[in-house]
Each structure stands twice: as C-alpha cells, then as structure tokens.
Design a protein that fits this description.
Blueprint (H helix, E strand, L loop, with lengths): L1 H11 L3 H7 L5 H12 L7 H4 L2 H4 L7 H12 L2 H6 L9 H16 L4 E3 H8 L4 H13 L3 E6 L4 E7 L10 H59 L1 H26 L2 H9 L21 H21 L1 H5 L8 H4 L5
Antiparallel strand pairs: 1-3, 2-3
Helix pairs in contact: 3-6
C-alpha cells in the first residue's frame, strides 16, 4: 500500500523521486542525478532539488558547473545559456529544447503577445518555421496555452501551463504582484457589492410598483362590480323620484281645491254613467310617466261625463275637481 502511494506521488510530482535520491547521493552520484533531472521530460521545476544539502555542496568545488546548470534550468533562459557557456555544462538537444520551452514560459509571464522577432532572438532560432514547430510542441506539452498569429507574426499567450521557480532575490517582486492582485480583487468585489445593492433597490421598486398596480386593479374591479349591482337601485330611485314629484304636483292641486269638494271626493265610490268604480287611498304605487298621463286623461273624460249626466253636480258651484294624485287610484 505504501509503495503504491509513493508511486502515485511520483507520477504527480516527477521531481520527487530525484529529491528522495538526493538525500543519500553524494559526489559522482549527485552529479549523475543532476544530469538526469534536467533531461527528464515533465520535470520543469528544480527548487526543491537545489535546497537539498548534498546538492548545495556542489556549489563550491570542482563540480560547480553542474550546480550552475541546475540553477540555469531553475531560473535562467536559453539566451543566458548562450552567454555563459563556459560556466555550465554542454547541453544535449533534449536539454536545449527543454530550456527553450522554459524560456517561452518566462517570456509569457512578461507579455501576452510575444513577437516572433523576440522569440527568434531569445531562442537562437534561425527561421520562423522552426520557431513555430517549437511553439506547437510547447502547446501540445501543456507548457503554454495560446495560439500563433501568423498574420501579425506573434505568439498570443492565454496563460502558462506551468510555473517556474522564483529566485530568492525576486521574492519582493512576487509580493508586490500579489499585493496588486489583492487590491484588484478588492476593487472588483466593491463593484460587485455596489451592483448587488443597486439590483436590490431596483427589485424593491419593481415589487412596490407591481403591488400598487395590483391594488389599483382590485379597486377598479370592486368599483365596476358596485356600479353593475347598483344599476337597478338607481333606476328605482329615479322612478320613485318621478312619482314623488308627481305626488307633489297632485298635492298642490289637492290643496287648491275647496275643503268641501275634497270631502265629497272621498265619499264618492263610483261615477254615475261611467260604470267605473273609484277608490281612494293614501299609498300610491310607482308608475311610469306614460301610464300616469293616460290615467289623468281618462279621469278628465269621466269627469266630463259625470257633469253631463248629474244635474246636481252641474248646478252646484262646489264641483269637485279630481286631482292628478287621485288618478293613480283608478283601476281599469
């Protein structure tokens, strides 16, 4: 079980096996270990190996070139290799290509768009075709992520697929970069909070506006329902008002008649010669204006007939005048 776990860790971190071997490797074994580390595919960081005591011993002594070569792969570029060939080991084609890939990573951390001219100079490549082949290999190896812009003769880098070791002298620059990044994050966070607050305010306004519209709609519905239900009552009130006004006119006419005529009028149960009975009451039903007019006309006609057939009433100066209010009591 322990062997399986160690194998998995080594697969995830290819440098780990070299770090474990460096604990016991000294002299020639340490030299051979450095040569294998800089040439093994997938090993792109070397800081842990440089920190091992047995490797640090090579810094001062006859094997200083191995120490310098390991430092070159950890922090340097291919151009630095060309400038310091006498201080480092002669590199194999595989080691040269790895150092060129690491150089592209270093350039990518400084600029998102790297011109071909800069790459040709830094990598010591003579033609664009070889340069593009090298870049394509780096992309497929997941060392960098980007694309070739052949029209503008530049490499557009999205991000680097790996990170290089940081020189001890560059820790201040890293701290400044992290501080700037943290400040940018705070600025973005403040903008997001402002947008959230604004969105909440707009949401509250929209909710209030919606509720107000719903209340207005409910009130309009209630008003329409009340108007529809009270239409019959209004018509009855209008009819009652007309009857009341007619009654008032009848009352005025009744008041204008002599008192003895009103007494005779109340005692009359029928009109001679007409055959139509007449009854008197104080409660008048509500009738339409057309029926009321016809009733008044009929009453006047019957009054004329009564005057012609009854000589007593014709000679009597106290003839009773049937008012409009009594016309409503006639039953046809």
């Amino acid at each position: 079980m322990t062997g399986t776990t160690t194998t998995e860790k080594s697969a995830n971190n290819p440098l780990e096996q070299f770090v474990l071997l460096a604990k016991t490797a000294k002299g020639a074994a340490a030299i051979e270990l450095i040569k294998q580390a800089v040439e093994t595919p997938g090993v792109h960081v070397f800081g842990e190996l440089l920190d091992m005591p047995n490797i640090k011993e090579l810094e001062n002594g006859p094997y200083v070139q191995y120490w310098n070569t390991l430092n070159l792969f950890a922090y340097g570029t291919y151009k630095e290799y060309l400038e310091n060939k006498d201080k480092v080991l002669e590199l194999t084609p595989t080691q040269k290509k790895k150092l060129q890939h690491l150089t592209i990573v270093t350039l990518a951390t400084k600029s998102r768009c790297i011109p071909y001219s800069v790459l040709l100079e830094e990598l010591d490549i003579k033609n664009v075709r070889d340069l593009e082949d090298l870049i394509i290999e780096a992309i497929y190896a997941d060392i960098i992520h980007g694309k070739l812009d052949q029209k503008n003769s530049q490499l557009e880098v999205d991000y680097a697929g790996l990170g290089r070791d940081v020189r001890p002298a560059d820790t201040g620059v890293v701290a400044e970069t992290l501080a700037a990044w943290g400040q940018a994050c705070d600025t973005v966070l403040a903008c997001i909070e402002e947008q959230v607050t604004r969105a909440n305010v707009e949401k509250q306004k929209a909710t209030y506006h919606k509720e107000r519209i719903q209340r207005d709609i409910a009130n309009i519905k209630k008003s329409l329902a009340a108007q529809a239900g009270g239409g019959g009552v209004q018509e009855a009130d209008m009819a009652g008002g007309s009857s009341g006004s007619g009654g008032s006119e009848s009352s005025r006419e009744a008041l204008s008649a002599p008192p003895d005529a009103k007494k005779k009028q109340q005692k009359v149960k029928g009109i001679k010669g007409s055959g139509v009975p007449v009854r008197s009451t104080t409660s008048l039903p509500v009738q339409s204006s057309v029926v009321r007019k016809r009733s008044v006309q009929s009453v006047k006609e019957m009054e004329n007939i009564s005057q012609q057939t009854d000589p007593f009433q014709r000679s009597n100066n106290t003839k009773a005048s049937i008012s409009e209010s009594d016309a409503f009591d006639i039953i046809f």
